[in-house]
Amino acid sequence: MKRLIVANWKELPETLGQAEELAIRAVEYAQGLIAHSTDIVVCPQYSYLEKVGKIFAGSKITLGAQDVATTGQE
């Protein structure tokens, strides 16, 4: 059975530097999981997509996106 891990980085990390560090650590961590039939998708904030996507390039992590956050008020 194949597993799927999806990480939605809603409001964390708070800075681009934190996002870069987290992305690098995710790539390192994912190397062991991929060998065990696990797909990983990370959905960072929109403003971090480009930089995080470059870090994930060539890795087994798929870059995803999330919709715009809402306040819950209509």
Task: Give a written overview of the molecule.
- The chain is of the alpha/beta class.
- It has helices at 16-34, 49-56, and strands at residues 3-8, 38-43, 61-63.
- It has a three-stranded parallel beta sheet with strand order 1-2-3.
- Helix 1 (16-34) links the parallel strand 1 and strand 2.
- Helix 1 packs parallel to helix 2.
- It starts with a strand and ends in an 11-residue tail after the last strand.
Mean pLDDT: 85
Helix/strand order: EHEHE
Determine the number of helices (DSSP H or I, runs of at least 4 residues): 2
Helicity, in percent?
25-40%
The biggest sheet amounts to:
3 strands, parallel
The total count of strands amounts to: 3
Report the portion of residues in β strands: 15-25%
Instruction: Strand order, main sheet: write it out.
Output: 1-2-3
Which class best fits the helix and strand makeup? Answer: alpha/beta
Radius of gyration: 13 Å
Uncertain parts = none
* N/C terminus separation: 41 Å
Q: Per the principal axes of the C-alpha atoms, what is the gross shape?
A: globular
Blueprint of the fold:
Blueprint (H helix, E strand, L loop, with lengths): L2 E6 L7 H19 L3 E6 L5 H8 L4 E3 L11
Parallel strand pairs: 1-2, 2-3
